[in-house]
Every structure is written in C-alpha cells, then in structure tokens.
C-alpha cells in the first residue's frame, strides 16, 4: 500500500508539473497576438493536448457505469377480471397483472481502494439490483451504504481487488473560468470525456435538492452522466455531476455538479453513522430583500431574516427572536439565506458558535450550541369568524376574517391557532403588489401580535393612508415577513 501511495504522489507531482506547462501554453493561446513575442508552436499545442489525455487516462478508470433494475408492480387485479360472469366465460384463463422490471443507467466514481463509490441518489433510488461495471469490464454487484436525498448523493460499495480510485481535490477554492473535465456514461456511452470551464460556483435555489451549493459548468453533461466525475487540471475529483438544465432533453450548455467537499462530508457521515447528521439552529428564515433591508435598518440586503423560532430549539435557548437578522455564524458572514442553511448544516452537532444578529437597529452577539437537525419541524397553523369592513390604508384591498371550519376546509388548513385569515385580495391593491394571497394568515402587523379580528381591527385601523407596514404572515406552514407600500 505504501508503494502505491508513493507512486501516486510521484505521478501527481509529474502531472502538476505538466499542468504548469499546459497553463503557460494556454496563456500563450489567449494572449493577443500584439502582446506575444512569437506565435504558438505546434509543439506547445501538442503539450496541451497530451495534458488532457493524461488527465483522462488517470481518472477514467475510477469512473464506473451503474445499471439498476427495479421491480415495478402493476397493482392488484382489476374489478373487471373479478366479475363472476367474466370468470364464468373465461374460466381460469383470465389474465392477471404481472410485475415488470425497469432498468436505469448512470455513473459513479470509485473514491477509495476498498470499493466505496459516490453517485447520485436518483441513480439508485428504488433499485432492487445494482450492477457496477469498470473500464476493464469487470462487473460487481453493489450494496447501498447510505442515501441522502437532501443532497442527491448515495454511497455504494463493491468488493474487489486492485480497484482504481480518484483522489479528492479541494472544491472550496474553485473559481469561475477554471478548466474542468466531466467524465461519465451519457446515454450508456461509457468512458465519455468532455471539457469546459467552471461557469459559476455556489449556485443555490436551483430547485434540485434541499441543500444546494452547485458548481455550474458548460462541460457537456447529458442523461447518464449523473454521478460521474468532474475533475480539475490536476486530475483531482472536485465535483459529482448531478443535473442539466435542458428544454430539449439534451445538452444546452448548463450543467450542475455537487462540490467534492460537500460530497466527502456526506459520504463520511453515511459510512460512519449510516445517516447524515446535520447541525440545527431551529429557526424559520427568509431572504432579505432591498425593501426588508430598509424596514429592518440594514445598509444593504444581507443576512437571513428570522420569521419564527421553534420551541425548545438551540436558537430559542440562545435568545434569538423573530425579526432578528442573522448576519454571521461562527465569524462567517451570511450574505443570503441559503448560506446560513448550508453553514449550520455543515457544522458539527454540539458545537458552540457565535451568532451576530441585528435587532431593532443594533448588532447583538450571542452564543448558541447547535443541535441535530430533526426529521420534521413543528409548523405554525392557524381561529374562527366572518369577513370585516375594509380600511382606508394599505389594508383596504384585503378581506380578512377569523378562521372558522368553512374557511379551514376551503384553504386546507387546521381550524386552530391564532391570527386572521386573508380571505380575498383586490387585484392591483397594495396588498396584492406586496404578494399577499388568499389563504395567508396575518400573525403580526408592525411587530404587534395579531391573535384575532379584534387585534386586526385595532392595529390596522391605526395605520395612516400613506403609511407602509411590515406584516408577518403564515403561508402553508412557513412564516414570512412582507412589506406593504401604499
């Protein structure tokens, strides 16, 4: 084993030296002719080509093909076949539904000499049988070590000897413009290598997984590439290819990969604990828009706005309150909501970290001991009444009422809790422009609690015709701040 490690380090050193040569050649290629003292030679171009060939030859053996088989049931016997007259006519020859098999294809990356494979959760989701094929045509039955659908990652294991494997690189330092290779099995075409650049890093709110921090690339990624390797110019694994943006079903220049640092942490947790353990603060949060930044006294839209604090959570014990804007965690600044979720989730459970929050125009510091993320969180729900008269202010476009059984059934919420229900919103009104919709529950107006229509009439009635207000609402179990401008 020691000899193998030494050979790998020597190879990595030689490859790094060649990368420097390639970088110099690429620089010559992109430098304007007027700034160059001489033209690029064919020898230099050949050196660039050889470099990418060597990267592909180094990494491709570690990229595997994954084929899955899922047994799908057609369901029970239909009433038609059970009809006694039908059986009297056909006897025992009546057709019966049968189970059938569905096959799937994808890619994976061997990341350890003992047979651990990283791939996407959606590649193996629901599979009854998983088969892994290597470049040398060896085939193995794979077992599932663990699956994490929140990041769309899965870890498999095969039992074999002299297995190739890819070394992890540091994905945290990736920058837009870096050259990368994508290796996988698109459309079942094994050992396919494509080249491109990192188009962007830290892509979030894409809508693919719960925890998103994607590397975006223009290296061609197609169906079947899922779970394959994204490598840098040192031949290091810096991402797991995951998804494409497409309107045609094929490559359109936008692909996404899960950063290697995130994939490595998820794999470590799945291997050691059988599940992914994530840190938990215990707050509901929303993005700070330019309007909300002004409402909460921020000089620019940044941080994450706390819309709710869960009972007996680490945040509640630390003193975090609804309306606080979390500016940093453990000394790391939060510029947007998704950064807070990723940072807290990646922090070890039980860690004591410092929070910096802005409250009522002042910056406060507090310490919180992070808990473990629970599978389900408590949600705020909504109490009984009738529509009320309109106001001559920003609430004039809202028809509100206490929540009764009829409204609860209409908007599919539980008829309990506090707040008032938005029954209707006039098109073009201030409330409509702010984004309020029927079914929203108004919980606060300008930081004053609204428990029912009596509170709503009293507080909303004092709002001036030209006054803007900050409203806290509950929508489908999520609490949100909404600024309403006259």
What fraction of the residues are assigned to beta strands by DSSP? 25-35%
Number of strands: 27
CATH class of the largest domain: Mainly Beta
Second rung of CATH, namely the architecture of the largest domain: Beta Barrel
Q: Give the strand order, joined by hyphens, for the main sheet.
A: 5-4-1-2-3-7-6
Number of domains: 4
Name the poorly predicted regions: 1-23, 376-388
| Approximate shape | elongated
Q: Which fold name is given in CATH as the topology of the largest domain?
A: Thrombin, subunit H
Can you characterise this structure?
It is built from twelve helices and 27 strands. The protein folds into four domains: 2-60; 61-72 and 99-276, Thrombin, subunit H; 280-372, Roll (Pdz3 Domain); 398-484, Pdz3 Domain (Roll), CATH 2.30.42. It is α+β, with helices and mostly antiparallel strands.
Distinctive features:
disordered N terminus, alpha+beta, Pdz3 Domain, Thrombin, subunit H, 486 residues, 7-stranded antiparallel sheet, 12 helices
Quick take:
The protein is 24% helix and 31% strand. With 486 residues, it is an alpha+beta fold.
Outline the secondary-structure elements.
Blueprint: H1 2-30, H2 42-59, E1 63-72, H3 79-82, H4 84-90, E2 100-110, E3 116-119, H5 121-124, E4 129-133, E5 139-141, E6 143-148, E7 153-157, E8 179-184, E9 192-203, E10 214-217, E11 229-231, E12 237-244, E13 255-259, H6 260-273, E14 279-280, E15 283-287, H7 290-295, E16 304-309, H8 314-318, E17 325-329, E18 332-333, H9 337-346, E19 352-359, E20 362-369, E21 371-372, E22 398-401, H10 405-411, E23 420-425, H11 430-434, E24 441-445, E25 448-449, H12 453-461, E26 469-475, E27 478-484
Helix pairs in contact: 1-2
């Amino acid at each position: 084993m020691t000899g193998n490690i030494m050979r790998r380090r020597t190879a990595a050193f030689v490859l790094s030296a060649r990368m420097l040569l390639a970088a110099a050649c690429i620089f010559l290629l992109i430098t304007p002719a007027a700034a160059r003292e001489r033209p690029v030679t064919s020898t230099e171009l050949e050196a660039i080509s050889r470099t990418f060939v060597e990267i592909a030859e180094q990494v491709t053996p570690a990229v595997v093909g994954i084929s899955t088989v899922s047994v799908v049931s057609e369901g029970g016997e239909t009433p038609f076949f059970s009809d006694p007259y039908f059986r009297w006519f056909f006897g025992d020859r009546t057709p019966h539904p049968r189970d059938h098999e569905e096959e799937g294809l994808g890619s994976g990356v061997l990341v350890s000499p003992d047979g651990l494979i990283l791939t996407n959760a959606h590649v193996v989701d629901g599979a009854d049988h998983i088969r892994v094929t290597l470049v040398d045509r060896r085939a193995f039955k794979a077992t599932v070590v663990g699956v994490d659908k929140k990041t769309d990652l899965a870890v498999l294991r095969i039992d074999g000897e002299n297995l190739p494997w890819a070394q992890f690189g540091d994905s945290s330092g990736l920058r837009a413009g870096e050259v990368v290779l994508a290796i996988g099995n698109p459309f079942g075409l094994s050992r396919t290598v494509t080249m491109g650049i990192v188009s962007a890093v830290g892509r979030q709110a894409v809508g693919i997984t719960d925890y998103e921090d994607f590397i975006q690339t223009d290296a061609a990624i197609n169906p079947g590439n899922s779970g394959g390797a994204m490598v840098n110019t040192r031949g290091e694994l810096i991402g797991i290819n995951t998804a494409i943006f497409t309107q045609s079903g094929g490559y359109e220049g936008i692909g996404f990969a899960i950063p290697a640092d995130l994939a490595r942490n998820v794999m470590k947790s799945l291997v050691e604990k059988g599940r992914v353990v994530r840190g938990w603060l215990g707050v509901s949060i929303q993005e700070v828009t330019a309007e909300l930044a002004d409402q909460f006294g921020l000089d620019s839209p940044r941080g994450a706005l706390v819309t709710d604090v869960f009972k007996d959570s680490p945040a509640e014990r630390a003193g975090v309150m609804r309306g606080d804007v979390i500016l940093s965690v453990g000394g790391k600044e939060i510029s947007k909501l998704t950064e807070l979720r990723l940072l807290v989730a990646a922090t070890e459970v039980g860690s004591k970290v410092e929070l910096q929050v802005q409250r009522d125009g002042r910056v406060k510091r507090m310490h919180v001991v992070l808990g473990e993320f629970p599978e389900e969180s408590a949600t705020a729900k909504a109490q009984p009444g009738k529509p009320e008269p309109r106001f001559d202010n920003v609430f004039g476009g809202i028809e509100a009422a206490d929540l009764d059984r009829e409204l609860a059934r209409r908007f599919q919420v539980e008829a309990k809790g506090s707040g008032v229900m938005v029954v209707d919103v006039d098109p073009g009104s201030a409330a409509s422009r702010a984004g309020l919709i029927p079914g929203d529950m108004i919980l606060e107006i300008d930081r004053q609690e609204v428990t029912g229509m009596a509170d709503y009439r009293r507080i909303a009635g004092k709002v001036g015709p030209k006054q803007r207000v900050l409203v806290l609402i509950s929508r489908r179990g999520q609490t949100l701040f909404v600024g309403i401008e006259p």
